[in-house]
Design goal:
The chain is 70% helix and 0% strand. It has 265 residues and is an all-alpha fold. About 5% of the residues have low confidence.
């Protein structure tokens, strides 16, 4: 019996590759693994800003959750998805663009990491992003130990989560568009799960909120993938979106200063 979650996830990846299924199915299996909330990637410890809003009485119902997620998808979700898609393009040598797929390009990744940094204006959110990136990177390093982009990000230190997600997606065989979908999937799923835990909301109604957001998720991911392609071809991370709203950043700092919290962010 497998007792360690990270080892279990890694063994799942290796088993799928060893079975010898057709390539499309293997790529789908890797994508589903990265989409699974049980993957040891640190996301379960973060609420995506929901806890701070709940504590201040600004989020009390599924209607409030739907409005919050709608706004986050159009701002932070678009930014995260764009960087995940860009990282996937940079990491995948089969695309013909994967200029950073070699482990010796850790310094080249630094520019893209810095671009995420400047789009994350408050320290609390930067710490949360790097913590989740480090957690996912530990799993990716074991799952795809020979992948050059993953090794380059390991050498970089504690890169931001969207870059790690994009590189891990490429290592798993996912497309940049799929990496973008993964980024917004985790944003929505993490916040929805936190709302259920914090408010005791009906999980069926929360699932309905997520389903209702599916068209916006697809639209956001498509915009992110297009922006990523332009930025990567130009080798210029400044071309990626920088959409933001001030309230989540302010609430993140208030949450960070709180003495007792259920989630890290």
């Amino acid at each position: 019996m497998c007792r360690d979650a990270t080892v279990c996830a890694v063994e799942t990846v290796r088993w799928v590759g060893a079975v010898g299924w057709v390539g499309a199915v293997v790529r789908l299996a890797g994508l589903l693994l990265l989409a699974d909330s049980r993957l040891p990637a640190g996301g379960h410890g973060h609420s995506g800003g929901v806890e701070a809003l709940v504590d201040c009485g600004l989020l009390t119902s599924t209607d409030d959750l739907a409005l919050f997620l709608d706004a986050r998808l159009r701002t932070a979700g678009l930014v995260a998805a764009s960087f995940a898609a860009a990282a996937s393009l940079l990491a995948a040598p089969v695309s013909g663009i994967g200029r950073y797929s070699d482990q010796y390009h850790s310094q080249a990744w630094r520019r893209w990491d810095a671009a995420v940094e400047v789009r994350t204006p408050v320290a609390a959110l930067r710490v949360a992003s790097r913590a989740q990136g480090a957690a996912l990177l530990r799993t990716a390093q074991l799952a795809w130990p020979e992948d050059g982009a993953v090794r380059a990000l390991v050498e970089l230190g504690r890169p931001h989560q969207p870059l790690v997600l994009g590189a891990a997606s490429a290592a798993a065989g996912a497309t940049p568009a799929q990496a973008a979908v993964l980024a917004v999937h985790h944003l929505v799923g993490g916040a929805a799960t936190a709302a259920v835990r914090l408010l005791g909301l009906d999980p069926l109604r929360v699932a309905a909120v997520q389903a209702g957001l599916a068209p916006l998720v697809d639209e956001t991911a498509a915009r992110a993938a297009s922006a990523a392609e332009l930025a990567v071809h130009a080798d210029d991370p400044d071309l990626l979106p920088a959409d933001a709203t001030p309230l989540p950043e302010i609430m993140a700092e208030l949450h960070h200063a709180s003495e007792v919290t259920l989630f890290a962010s």
